[in-house]
């Protein structure tokens, strides 16, 4: 497993093989736990956002809490049912469409003009959206956000995008269904492209464990000071 700490309270863990994932399922995930190999030190009961990546690139973002610090690892308790998570991580890439040029979804979408991408985004299927979400044109991201089939995990990826701008962040902030997800709020808060005013609005909605993490290790001074004031019981 390849583990990377992406934020003070966020990690990415990539399983390198199906065998490794199934072994972790048998040993820990089936009981709601996860052994996260890392030399990082995190206090017990700290709430983490964990992006799990399967051997074929499928991802699932979950919330977890630190149960104990182990030698060379963290013992985590994962929130919710872990069975669908494993199924998601074991998904293989879709077969390329059987068109005359045998293009993959990636090639097909990337070959389109920007106008064609904008028109496609609002009705694209999941495979097409996976490509469009990585586009460097924020207008495409805005169009993807209008897609009625968009899922929370896709909104999280957009919220983390390095191509996020004010308009994209504003649409997410104004959609209650998305902002009810802690993962979406954290993704926006930790994205340096998110306007600072938005981050300051998100901060009061976070659990104390997340606020403490920002107070200890945040890189945005305004957010860090607001987090410290909240923990001290002062208005932020």
Plain-language structure description:
By secondary structure, this protein is an alpha+beta fold. It folds into two domains: 2-89, predicted glycosyltransferase like domains (Thrombin, subunit H), CATH 2.40.10.220; 105-231, no CATH class. 44% of the residues lie in helices and 17% in strands. The protein has helices at 18-27, 83-89, 105-110, 114-121, 126-132, 138-145, 152-160, 166-173, 176-179, 182-189, 196-202, 208-217, 221-231, and strands spanning 2-7, 10-14, 33-37, 47-53, 59-70, 73-78. It is flat and about 50 Å long. 33% of the residues are buried. The model is unreliable at 95-102 (pLDDT under 50).
The percentage of residues in β strands lies in 15-25%
The number of helices is 13
Helix content: 40-55%
Give the overall shape, derived from the CA principal axes.
flat
Count of DSSP E strands?
A: 6
Order of helices and strands: EEHEEEEHHHHHHHHHHHH
CA distance, first residue to last residue: 39 Å
Structural class: alpha+beta
Please tell me how large the radius of gyration is.
19 Å
Number of domains: 2
Low-confidence stretches: 95-102
Q: Name the strands of the widest sheet in spatial order.
A: 1-2-4-5-6-3
Main β-sheet description:
6 strands, mixed
Average pLDDT for all residues: 86
Map the helices and strands.
Elements: E1 2-7, E2 10-14, H1 18-27, E3 33-37, E4 47-53, E5 59-70, E6 73-78, H2 83-89, H3 105-110, H4 114-121, H5 126-132, H6 138-145, H7 152-160, H8 166-173, H9 176-179, H10 182-189, H11 196-202, H12 208-217, H13 221-231
Parallel strand pairs: 2-4
Antiparallel strand pairs: 1-2, 3-6, 4-5, 5-6
Helix pairs in contact: 4-6, 6-8, 7-10, 10-11, 12-13
